[in-house]
Amino acid sequence: MVKKKLPVGIDNFKEIIENNYYFADKSMLINEVLDKKSKVILLPRPRRFGKTLNMSMLNYFFNIEDRELNKNLFNDLNILNTDKMTYQGEYPVIYISLKDIKVSNWIECFEEIKKLLKDIFNTKRYIREKLDESEKIDFDKIEFLNETGDFMGALKNLSKYLFKFYGRKTIILIDEYDTPLVTAHSQGYYDEAIFFFRNFLSAALKGNPYLEFAVLTGILRIAKESIFSGLNNITVSTILDNNFNYFGLTEIEVEEALKYYELDYELEEIKKWYNGYKFGDKLVYNPWSIINCINNKELNPYWINTSDNALIKQLLAKNDKKVFEELELIFKGESIWETISENIIFDDLNNTNTVWSLMLFSGYLTYEKMRISPITGLKSYSLKIPNQEIKSFFRQSFIETYTKGDVHFYGTMMEDLFLGNLNSFINKFKKMYMSAVSYHDTGDSEKYYHHFMLGVLLTLGDKYIITSNRESGYGRYDIALEPKDKGNYGLIFEFKIGDKNSIEDKAREALAQINEKKYDISMKNNGVSKVIKIGMAFSGKDVAIESEIN
């Protein structure tokens, strides 16, 4: 039997159904949208979890254009067996995706928005015949990119024009509404972008008499006061809620797909790599990764390579002590408890506590449990890395951060350390350190260097138990890596700071401290027979290293 093709990179619902691609039925999302009957529904979900495909499905279901042809798309889907089919093809629909608006400045961003609106107006040109002369002029200003066009009010005006043509209110679907704002923040033009989009969305969604309802998707729930100011009729369902959970693939759906493509023997490995996300009370898999894994018949980190992950890397680069200590726990497979804010305020991104909310909603972490403080009433969640694919993202991010992208060089350096080739390790480390740090990053605080080294070493979490500032012997070491295989070398690091002329002496002092205070005693008591001891001393971009094995 010839198998159905996999929809690799295809997120157009009609194309998938008409070309008989493999499809996991999510049509009951339509049922829930109609049952909830909110004026505006916001559904933040991580990228590549099926948002665009679901929005495309909503468009083809409700759209009055080609209603009879579109009806056939739902013949074999679950929604067909409900009373909601009476809504099929009943509304004019404006469907807009902002996912590709990723440019370096506001002028370019606004040009991209105008072109997008021009294309939408062009597809609706047939309604122009029902407009009066002044409306035709306004319509044409958008379609022909006239600089006096009302681009801020374009969605509201188009919904009015559609109402005049069909006599029915309009459904507005906006996919990836937050992409331009996330990009604007990372590129430094957030103030201009938020001013436009606040007014653009408010005009269309707040008090619009021509709006039936709207559905928006994105990755983040941007704080109401930032973008949804005054919008009181909005229902938000994040990954922490049990509503609208038709994103991602359930375990049953993954098992069915693996069985269909005769790969069910891989289930346990696929669980390890791609499972672990929790949306509400459901465990789900990343569909992008599953599709690519089945297509390539190979376990690889597919999802992490689909975006530049700029916000996450920006926060990781801050070298915040608390973040690194908790990442240390996460890399060991433990959970951390954090207070999570469902509203992301971009002005708070300089606050490293925001990193946990951002990582959770972006799909880099997942949660297991929730608890409510009896004192403050605040909710906190136990967070962990969901799977092997995301663990590889963190490993890659740290490597790229600390080696300026020279992954191969980093790999050989860490192999030298693992094998005890200390002279080679030291030479490579000095070369890497020289290019990785800036005088502006360093200072007279040992904390910076401690976090720098922790970032370099966290990638070894699969082979070592990594701890820092723990008691052993007669004091507290800076960083220790106890091998999970007791036949391998253990590692103990002690750090000092000094001036350029004293760091050689300081490095010897650090090594002597490891020996004098017997920092290796806990490791030896746990059955590790060989320990590498490394004393490091830093001064700006200069580093001195002393080491021994015993």
Short description:
The protein has 550 residues and is of the alpha/beta class.
Name the features.
alpha/beta, 22 helices, elongated, 4 domains, 5-stranded mixed beta sheet, 550 residues
What does this entry look like structurally?
The protein has helices at 13-18, 28-36, 51-62, 67-71, 106-123, 133-143, 154-166, 179-187, 190-205, 224-227, 251-260, 267-274, 287-296, 310-316, 321-331, 354-362, 388-403, 407-419, 422-436, 446-457, 503-516, 521-525, and strands at 40-44, 93-97, 170-175, 211-218, 234-236, 249-250, 277-279, 282-285, 336-339, 366-372, 379-384, 464-468, 471-472, 475-476, 479-483, 490-497, 531-539, 542-549. The protein is α/β, with parallel strands linked by helices and 550 residues long. The chain folds into 4 domains: 13-236; 249-297, no CATH class; 310-390, no CATH class; 404-549, tt1808, chain A (Alpha-Beta Complex). Strands 2-3-4-1-5 form a 5-stranded parallel beta sheet, sandwiched between helices. A 5-stranded mixed beta sheet has the order 12-15-16-17-18, sandwiched between helices. It has a 3-stranded antiparallel beta sheet with strand order 6-8-7. The model has no long low-confidence stretch (mean pLDDT 89).
Poorly predicted residue ranges? none
Q: What structural category do the secondary elements indicate?
A: alpha/beta
Distance between the termini: 63 Å
Spatial strand arrangement across the major sheet = 2-3-4-1-5
Helix content: 40-55%
